[in-house]
């Protein structure tokens, strides 16, 4: 039995402001830092000791991993990072206010962009102030792989190679794996693990800073569909808040 722990970063400055973030590299808010530390404490209290951490290339996920591992006395853990764990690229919506976007385009279009499986927002222009074109952290990424917008389906497709090539080998070696990533890159992974349908996934939201633990069998299928949050009560309220963003 392998153990996988998923952790969405703590609240970011742009989560707090209600802005579409995607690949824009924002930091944690003070509340988000507290959430990350608490996430680490929850791990420690549950007796879960990751052997390795995987993060995206975005500051908010890296900070969350550091703060959580610091709180659990595990700052020394080896870390691996990849753009494949980045948040879904939110295209031309990056930097826009969620509530204003909902008002301007209506509930249906807003939810289509936010939660449909295969409808991406319009692409972002390279000269947009919130574009990542020219960001040195993606310098080695072939230009045809560099997204200008993504739907969840695109995220599943770019995340799965990392799951199979980097995370599964760690699990196969008997390591407990911590993945610190984002609302939508983790929705993509949970969709895969739980075998959630393309329509059903629209209703799944991931709260910030609360570890979600999966015990996996020899085929990397969850022992319990949906895994278990280390603070189920807090997760319930926080999931509701994510679902209601923009309202
Ligand atoms: C949020 C997710 O990503 O937003 O990009 O705005 O997890 O990095 O804060 P995260 C963003 P929603 O898809 O839930 O609106």
Write the layout of secondary structure elements.
Elements: E1 2-8, H1 13-17, H2 30-45, E2 52-55, H3 59-71, E3 79-81, H4 98-105, H5 107-115, H6 152-172, E4 177-181, H7 183-194, E5 212-216, E6 228-229, H8 232-243
Parallel strand pairs: 1-4, 2-3, 2-4
Antiparallel strand pairs: 1-5, 5-6
Helix pairs in contact: 2-3, 4-5, 6-7
Bound molecules: (2R)-2,3-diphosphoglyceric acid.
GO biological process, one term: gluconeogenesis
Binding site for substrate: 8-15, 21-22, 60, 87-90, 98, 114-115, 183-184
Function: Catalyzes the interconversion of 2-phosphoglycerate and 3-phosphoglycerate.
What are the salient characteristics of this protein?
Rossmann fold; about 10% strand; about 250 residues
How would you describe this structure to a colleague?
With 247 residues, the chain is an alpha/beta fold. The chain has a single domain, classed as 3-Layer(aba) Sandwich (Rossmann fold), CATH 3.40.50. It is built from eight helices and six strands; from the N terminus they run E-H-H-E-H-E-H-H-H-E-H-E-E-H. A six-stranded mixed β-sheet has the order 3-2-4-1-5-6. Helix 3 links the parallel strand 2 and strand 3. Helix 2 crosses helix 3, helix 4 crosses helix 5 and helix 6 packs across helix 7. The chain is globular and about 45 Å long. The chain starts with a strand and ends with a helix. The protein binds (2R)-2,3-diphosphoglyceric acid.
